[in-house]
């Protein structure tokens, strides 16, 4: 247990350093490219942060494998240790100077999330969790809200790279809008999950997310007392994209 705690502290220090690198980015030279489509953007900062994380994380835990959003030859396996990483979750926000992006790092061991770290460098909020040890933000314990949905906020993602999901997404958002106090769309699934974990919102959904988008945040929600499944109530998968539904209560 003590060894894992030391590793978590080292991971947080690495993530914080990468967050400061993002915060101080030269906005005049982002070198923006599109990946799978018009809304799927990548910058040289995504790539540079991922490489910094890859090197740093594998120094902390040399027997682990690394799976990152921005290109990797490593394939996830249900056996072994895997870092699952999004170097900048909310790249469109980053490109636009919206200042709501995060770094997301999860450690999955034998198909179970063991550690999760999500850092918002703009707000200097470090969310983290270790399986069975609770969830925290800047050292303070987190717990999901006790409010029912009618007294709550719903945060959601629009799966912008998948136009076939647009209509269903906004229909669900409208349905939740009628049931809750209000809805929010932030542009960072990892931070949306942490928003639920912190009790700032009662529910999050998105119809298509990759494991690097949700692996760390889902553990943080669970350790804060929440429930995370796909939108059909099944456990999340780390080897392929899926929908995500996180909530404070059944």
Helices and strands in order, then pairings?
Elements: H1 2-23, E1 33-34, E2 41-42, H2 44-60, E3 65-68, E4 81-89, H3 91-96, E5 102-109, E6 112-120, E7 125-130, E8 135-137, E9 140-141, E10 153-156, H4 166-179, E11 182-184, H5 189-197, E12 203-209, H6 211-223, E13 227-229, E14 242-247
Parallel strand pairs: 3-4, 10-11, 10-12
Antiparallel strand pairs: 1-2, 4-5, 5-6, 6-7, 7-8, 8-9, 12-14, 13-14
Helix pairs in contact: 1-2, 5-6
Structural write-up:
This protein has 250 residues and is an alpha+beta fold. It folds into two domains: 2-141, 2-Layer Sandwich (Fructose-1,6-Bisphosphatase, Chain A, domain 1), CATH 3.30.540; 149-247, D-Maltodextrin-Binding Protein, domain 2 (3-Layer(aba) Sandwich). It has helices at 2-23, 44-60, 91-96, 166-179, 189-197, 211-223; strands at 33-34, 41-42, 65-68, 81-89, 102-109, 112-120, 125-130, 135-137, 140-141, 153-156, 182-184, 203-209, 227-229, 242-247. The strands form three sheets. Strands 3-4-5-6-7-8-9 form a seven-stranded mixed beta sheet, sandwiched between helices. The chain has a five-stranded mixed beta sheet with strand order 11-10-12-14-13, sandwiched between helices. Helix 1 runs antiparallel to helix 2 and helix 5 packs parallel to helix 6 (211-223). The longest helix has 22 residues, at 2-23. The radius of gyration is 17 Å and the shape is globular.
